[in-house]
Amino acid sequence: MTSVRDREEDDQRELSVRPTDEDPLAVSGSELIGGPAGRWARAAGHHWWNPLRVMVLVVIGMFALGMVQKASCYSGAWFQPGDPQYIHACYSDIPHLYAQRGFSTDLVPYFDRIPTGMSGSADLHYLEYPVLTGLFMEVASWLTPHGSAQHSAQTYWAVNAGMLMVCAVVLVVCVARTTRRRPWDGLFVALSPALALTATVNWDLFAVALAAAGLMLWSRGRPGWAGVLIGLATAAKLYPVLLIGVLFFLCLRAGRLRQFAVALGGAVGAWLVVNLPVIVWARSGWAQFYSFSRSRPTDYGSLWLIISERSGHVFTIDSVNAFGTALMLLLCAAVAGLALCAPRRPRLGQLAFLAVAALVLSNKVYSPQYVLWLLPLAVMARPRWRDLLIWQGAEVIYFLGIWYRLAYVTGAKHHGLTADAYHLAIGVHLLGVLYLSAIVVRDILLPEYDVLRQGGEDDPAGGPLDGADDVFVLGPEPHEPKHAAAA
């Protein structure tokens, strides 16, 4: 006899939105595998192969393909002089930093100074990563047996790849469980070419998974634990602090500042638990990340690099910091204004994407793995295959562009991209981010275009904000909020 719980789960599966239910590109693409899902596919939802299990296997497969893409570097290109690792577009920071940051000699991050010969820079004395990322790197080094320099570096990369694969699975699960009735949205992340290509370039995926877990907990009405996860994500990478600002303006508009205060308290508490011991006992090592970020000059991938190289004007560190900060503040002010003035309160995913996109556009450096910061937020903001693939295509072009530019700069034969061609690759990346941002802004200003609101819902990922009335609005009279239950 069917239990009440089984009937509820069956009802929930029946209500779940599949990509082929509403996405024209998904419908067209599904013809390759037999067409859109029908009644037999719906019946199969009662079996073991539910959306979550399918997407976990898909992301593991894509992650494995990304590891295969690094095979030529793993086999030796990382350790050869010249540009082979750039020509094959398989560079990763992980094996290089194993020795350069003292992990091969068991130096303790933030407490032990890195000899100049290891770091390659007379100015770098400590690990220049946030504390929780440093702990991730250190744990991977504990799991790496000592051997020859090359073999240990290869093993260190493999150990980190295994740990980052777990982060990729967590990321997909969190995205799939964040937006009610849309578990298949996690497939956008699982099949992302940018995820496969950049997941093992650096350690950003760790912070991205933590931030995604925080947003999932917020969507489940747990602001305290959401704040804890966002605080931990900020202890691993600085960009998730923007999510706190996004929550503030959305909660201000909805009159839910108490929930924001709970999330803020959880975030600050979690960040302090991780950072405070290092601040107390290794303050100079802890401060290295912040001083390094502040003293970093104009670097690859940024708008400022194009301006500098095409105009011939060399930005000083102080000037690029000032221009970048000014542009960031201007863009964030626009996002805040949109939150308070839009005819209907923006969804959490929309505003979070725009805030992080503002950082990406204004920053003085854009490493190829930074695309991971935007990936789950883009899916929450605009779950449409066409728009996401246009943006992802631009990011893949930039991924190839940065390595071929480095091949040209470092190689004796100058195989790769000239400065002009590399500027074009940067421009493609910037236009891709701007395109998706423009689509998201249009959906905010014209809610009838918003995919998630066409079914009568307000903000499926909004948690305490879902269905809330507007209390503080600077624009015209707001629309009445809608909710799936009311519809």
From TrEMBL:
Whether ATP-binding counts among this entry's keywords is no
Q: Per the record's keyword annotation, is Transmembrane included, yes or no? A: yes
User: Which parts of the sequence are annotated with region: Disordered?
Assistant: 1-28, 461-487
* Top-rank taxon: Bacteria
Which keywords, in A-to-Z order, does the entry hold?
Cell membrane, Membrane, Transferase, Transmembrane, Transmembrane helix
Q: How does it sit in the membrane?
A: Multi-pass membrane protein
**In what ranges is there compositional bias, type Basic and acidic residues?**
477-487
Question: Which subcellular locations apply to this protein?
Answer: Cell membrane
What InterPro entries does its record include? GT87, UCP010361
Question: What family is it from?
Answer: Belongs to the glycosyltransferase 87 family.
What is the protein named? Answer: Glycosyltransferase 87 family protein
Question: Species name for this entry?
Answer: Actinacidiphila polyblastidii
